[in-house]
Amino acid sequence: MNKTKKTNNVMIRLIDNIDLVWKNNQPLGCCIHNRTWQKIALQQGDMDGACAVYSLMMYLIAIKVLTYAQVKNLNTKFNGQTSKGRLFKEFFEKEGLCRNGFYFSTIVEKLKHSFSKEVSAVSSNYNSTDFDQSNAVQQIKEAIDDNCPIMIAEVFKGGGAHAILAVGYEFCNDELTKIFCLDPGYPIADYSYWNTVIRINDAKGKVYSHTSISDKQMNDIYIDETLRIRKR
Predict the structure, then answer these.
(1) Phi, psi at residue 231, to the nearest 5°?
(2) What would the 3-class secondary structure string for 162-199 be?
(3) Which of 37, 156, 188, 232 is most buried, judging by how many CB atoms fall within 10 Å of its CB?
C-alpha cells in the first residue's frame, strides 16, 4: 500500500508496508507485515542511554530482518555462531545497560562484525551549516523515497544527543518541511505512525536550525548523523 497523501500543495510520504493494525479486536499500532503483523515501536527504559540501540532494533524490525517478539522477549536465545546470535551478543551481552549511547559509525562497525551476511550499513556525519543540513535532509528524503527507514542523530541546543528512526516526511511547495519519526524515548499512540516530528529550517542560518517536537518536549536541534541500512 502506497502511503502517499496529497492535500493542495502538501504531500505526506511514508515508507511502504507499514500500517495501523487491529488484531483480535486489539490495537497493535504501527506495524510491518513480516509473515504476520509485527509492531515496530520500542520504548527505552528511563535509566539507559541506548536510544541508538532501540532505534537500530526498530530499524531491523522495519526491514524484516528481526521480529518484534525476538527483540522484545528478554528470553530470546540464538545460536552464538549464527548472524542473529552474534548480533544480540554484540549489542546486548557485551554492552549491557548502555549509558552513553553509540556513534553511528560504531554501529556500522558492529554490524560489519556481527551481521554482515544479513545487512549492509553506511553512516554519514554532518556539521550544522546550511549546506550540510541540506545534504542530511536530502539523504533522509532519498531513503524514504526508496521505502527504507533511516536513523537520525539529533543534537540538542541545550546539550546532549538522541537517536530516532525516520519513517516519513512532509513535502510542501517543493520543499521538505517535516520528518516523521519513531522515537524510543516516548510512548506512541496506537492510532499514529510516528511520535516525533522534526520541523525543518524553523531557524535557517542558525546552528540549531530545526525543531524536534515530541511528547511534551520541543527542542532546537541540528542533524548530526544518519545511518542507512539495507537488507541483503
Answers:
(1) -75, 135
(2) EEEEEEEEEEECCEEEEEEEECCCCCCCCCCCCCEEEE
(3) 188
Which pLDDT does position 23 carry in this prediction?
87
As a residue count, the chain comes to 232
CA distance 112 to 122: 10
The predicted pLDDT at position 194 comes to: 98
3-class SS letters over 96-137: CCCCCCCCHHHHHHHHHHHCCCCEEEEEEECCCCHHHHHHHH
The answer, yes or no, to whether residue 96 has pLDDT greater than 80, is no
Please state, rounded to an integer, the average pLDDT across all residues of the chain. Answer: 90
SS3 61: helix
What are the phi and psi torsion angles at 21 (to 5°)? -120, 140
32 CB-contact burial (10 Å; exposed 0-12 / middle 13-18 / buried 19+): buried
Within a 13 Å sphere around the CA of 148, how many CA atoms are in the beta-carbon half?
Answer: 19
